[in-house]
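From the shared-data thread, chain only:
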Amino acid sequence: MGFCFFNSIAITAKYLRDKLNIGKILIVDLDVHHGNGTQQAFYADPSILYVSLHRYDEGNFFPGSGAPNEVGSGPGEGYNINIAWTGGLDPPMGDVEYLTAFRTVIMPAANEFDPEIVLVSAGFDAVEGHDPPLGGYKVTAKCFGHLTKQLLKLADGRVVLALEGGHDLTAICDASEACINALLGNELEPLPEDIVHQIPNMNAIASLKKTTEIQSKYWKSVEPYSVPVDCALAESQKQEREETETVSAMASLSVDVEQCIPQEGSRAAGEPMEEEPAL
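Structure, as tokens:
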């Protein structure tokens, strides 16, 4: 649709399959836009598992394809996985949502598929710094490094990244550096502890539930998504604490204000009391 003349990843996958007799190929598409061309190329091909994480918004975000129920056709049914984020930018998806998608969908299905090589459409327009029309998400560059590190656990580390989307030079540079550090086996900057244990936003939860409900029919390792009870409880308790702290702060502020305002008929500090007239 005008954004590439040659689909490097699709060409590479077909070459590996047809010329080098590679039997099972995993394609992971990180670009914030759905890879409609790649999906179409392998929609009926069971030798290539295509997985895409993308902003979808019920088909209202370009290019409008990539619904969760687009699972492949014929012998390729079940070999097309779309994690189609919905809900716009209220709030935007970030590290928590992408890490959760990898943990609950991508890595389980990928391990079960057991590819001989992994090809990554390394589009970085989901990285923070892109305006809403171009993505508007808040995934950090270092998160992409950690996602790449996870993929290196597959196919004995045979992973190829092809630079694709990205419209902010700083974001592209930072994310590329993070991914190359992962490929080189360098120690990555750790993610904040709260990010690792945080639950996704409600829109992401809805998106993951829809995807896992569909894909669990094809992959026994993919279970219908539900927020872990302990995480939900922890989040609920956190909200309760925040609400309690807010109420306490407001009450304290209210008391302070009342103490600062002299009440009618009260005397100021140091002011002598008037004697009552004698009867």
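The first helix runs from residue 8 to 18.
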